[in-house]
Amino acid sequence: MNMDLYLIIFTFEATRTDITYERHKELFIELEKHFTVHLVNCEEADSIPANVYKMAFIANGSVEDKVISNFSVFPYPITLLTDGLYNSLAASAEIVASIRSKDLRARIIHGSPEEMVQDVLLHYRAYSARKALKGKRIGVIGAPARWLVASHVDYFIASKRWGVHYIDIPIETLNDRFAAVTDDMIGMEASVIANRATACQDVTPNDLLRAMRLYKAVRTICDEERLDAVTLPNISIAHTLQTTGDLALSLLNDEGISAGCEGDLQSIMTLLMAKTLTGQTCFMGDTSFVNTGCNEVTLSHCAIAPSLTDEYFICDHFETHVGIALRGIVHEGDVTVFKCGGECLDEYFVSEGYLTENGNCPAAPRTQLKIKLEKPVSYFLTNPLGSHHILIPGRHAAVIQEFMQHNRCRLRE
Length: 413
Prior knowledge:
There is one protein chain. By secondary structure, this protein is of the alpha/beta class. The chain has 2 domains: 3-133, 3-Layer(aba) Sandwich (Rossmann fold), CATH 3.40.50; 137-411, L-fucose Isomerase, Chain A, domain 2 (3-Layer(aba) Sandwich), CATH 3.40.275. It has helices at 17-23, 25-31, 64-69, 88-101, 113-133, 155-162, 171-180, 183-196, 205-225, 234-241, 246-254, 265-278, 379-382, 397-406; strands spanning 3-10, 35-41, 54-58, 78-81, 106-109, 137-141, 165-169, 199-200, 229-232, 258-261, 283-291, 296-301, 311-315, 325-329, 333-341, 347-359, 367-373, 388-393, 410-411. The strands form 4 sheets. A 6-stranded antiparallel barrel has the order 11-12-17-16-15-18. A 5-stranded parallel β-sheet has the order 2-1-3-4-5, with helices on both faces. Helix 2 (25-31) packs across helix 5 (113-133), helix 7 packs across helix 9 (205-225) and helix 9 (205-225) crosses helix 11 (246-254). It is elongated and about 80 Å long.
């Protein structure tokens, strides 16, 4: 199904849109393989419906002043599409130089028709993800872990920048929902989880039932509060409820609700971004080991969505030895490591890589994934955005880069 693309046409002389189409037919035909293209002369830009995907098309030269005087009709950051015909690339370069001199962001999409269409498709995915994020609700159950000293978020700025809403939920609400769940309500689901596991190690049936009761309690809160994402204070839960949230987080991620632990407000936003951008279920991991000689990093955690694994083992939780953890075995292959951080959620790291090995070190969280990165792993030692990072199956750096730059974020390396 084609998407709508409104191109605001800038020409030196008053030119009918059908003539513009013929002059740039090669590009437009390629665009029409993916989009329903609407050509609109800049004088009629006010007729374009609100909240649609639109972009400036520079059709020829000598339009620089006309573009600058119509600055307000463009979505920001400003993107100019040009095939270079009729001196349009030179004009675009002059326009971008003027815009950037005002400390504003602008870029040119140019190349072969096929290359330009691929860039437009990336731009469209970033635009669509930004729209999809607006109004998303992130539940923060309890308080963030006290040791996450660099992972806080300014709720107000996050709402203004990204359109998301962080919802504080008292831990007492979770305790009440947990108390209302009986073993009979989750016994069948617990059996399914156990039967699908390759083995159960150092846990009892009661451990599994309590972990499933917590899952059901969190799921109830997600439904009540209409949450798109949720984060839990795992260690404090272990002390009060004698279980941990790792199984709950694992299952929720498989159900399409981005879920993370320790009240890490930056990482839960990154999980939600990654899910929205790529449609993939993701893995949130601690930075456990870095090998600069091999350019490898190991991400580990006690929660992983079963759908990401070839097989999984049910274990006890690494730090507390209370409750349930999952040790997942993940197939080797291409992955992307991503983190959006900073108190204003305006910085990011992204690198593609290859998952080479599943570890089983007893002195690290249960699921351990070793990744050979394309970017230097020294980032994790010299300039990291906190302890947690997100692993996404597949290669997604291009669309993440487009999305983060589209939203005026700074790349950290």
